[in-house]
Design brief:
alpha+beta; 2 domains; 5-stranded antiparallel sheet; about 50% helix; elongated
């Protein structure tokens, strides 16, 4: 807001310290234009009137106020002030349209990618979605948590591409998972059904999407007592488990496998890896917007190393941090690591196994 005032003050100083044949009128003319995106209509008009008054005083002091320079500059200042008001109104309309579009995108994201339930049995669940572009609240990352006849099942994924095509693929992935998760007796069968669904979707879309459409996915299944978590990783960043003392462990797959939707290129086996999941632990799943965030030296973000330090060792099993606090800390630490705004979309999911009889939501 001080930019237009600064221009006027600069014009006064320049005019007073330079010879009479040097004019600072261009700086005064720039002041209303600078006020256009920063001030309201009254502020713009006020800046224009002050600039005209200052110009008249300076021209009177220099003895240059006349038709040739003084009056012409006054007319120019008045015209530029009117132009600044029109620019301001145009910017306001564009801003209103952008806000409406952002609101529609947020509503669409809630429809395509709804928040998972906050609680399933003794699992407390939180999710976050951080778009790389603040104006675009929807992208190609996804998460879903579902209670099925075979236990609680989870998928976190990232579809190839951006824009509306990626949103369409996210919708197809989520629909396929919700059906397959309820109908599949084990994870390998679930993955096979997802593969077939994605191939059919690629054939319907045709073109490049048929040849190159794929989804990196991490699929998890909790045992009935939640004591173990079984994973199938299809080309996705491995999840991390935080234990009750805040120590982080990466759950690497025993065998690498390509993303979903690439079975036209061959057949790969994806082993089911089982890991202990004791009470007080938090399973963190995320997309490559987290693990591929780089710092100024080009080093990738490592949640196993950095997250416990960011949490400060304050995670405890009962009176410690909630899953939401952990995700917020992780997002902020990634932002510090990368030096600002996200470099890619980030979808994050935290699943905390509570101690029997303890509701972490009440403690927060």
């Amino acid at each position: 807001m001080w930019i237009p005032v600064g221009l006027i003050v600069m014009a006064v100083v320049i005019d007073l310290v330079t010879p009479q044949d040097v004019t600072s009128a261009p700086l005064l003319i720039a002041a209303p234009v600078a006020a256009a995106p920063l001030c309201g209509i009254r502020g713009i008009v006020g800046v224009g009137l002050v600039a005209m008054a200052v110009h008249a005083c300076l021209a009177w002091i220099d003895g240059t106020f006349g038709w040739r320079a003084g009056v012409a500059n006054q007319i120019t200042l008045a015209g530029v002030t009117v132009l600044a008001v029109l620019i301001h109104r145009t910017l306001r309309r564009q801003d209103a349209r952008a806000r409406r579009a952002q609101y529609v995108a947020a509503v669409a994201q809630q429809a395509v990618l709804p928040m998972p339930p906050s609680r399933l049995g003794d699992l407390s669940i939180e999710a976050r979605y951080v778009p790389a572009e603040s104006e675009a609240a929807i992208g190609g990352d996804l998460y879903v948590v579902q209670s099925t006849p075979y236990g609680i099942r989870v998928m976190v994924g990232d579809v190839r591409g951006k824009g509306l095509g990626a949103v369409s693929a996210v919708s197809a992935d989520l629909g396929a998972f919700r059906y397959a998760a309820d109908e599949s007796e084990d994870l390998p069968q679930l993955v096979r059904r997802l593969e077939r669904a994605l191939l059919r979707e690629g054939e319907r879309r045709g073109g490049q999407e048929r040849a190159e459409g794929f989804t990196t996915a991490l699929i998890a299944e909790f045992s009935e007592d939640l004591a173990r978590v079984r994973l199938i990783n299809r080309g996705h960043p491995p999840p991390v488990v935080l234990d009750a003392r805040g120590r982080a462990t990466r759950l690497d797959s025993s065998e690498e496998a390509p993303p979903l939707g690439m079975s036209d290129l061959g057949v790969w086996s994806a082993p089911v890896d089982s890991f202990p999941f004791p009470a007080g632990s938090t399973l963190l799943c995320f997309t490559d917007g987290i693990t591929e965030a780089r710092d100024a030296a080009g080093d990738f973000y490592d949640p196993v190393v950095r997250l416990p330090l960011a949490l400060g060792g304050s995670l405890r099993s009962v009176d410690g941090l909630t899953p939401g606090h952990i995700l917020d800390t992780l997002i902020e630490d990634v932002r510090r690591h990368s030096g600002g705004r996200p470099q890619d979309d980030q979808a994050l999911l935290a699943l905390y196994r509570e101690h029997p009889g303890v509701n972490l939501n009440k403690l927060s």
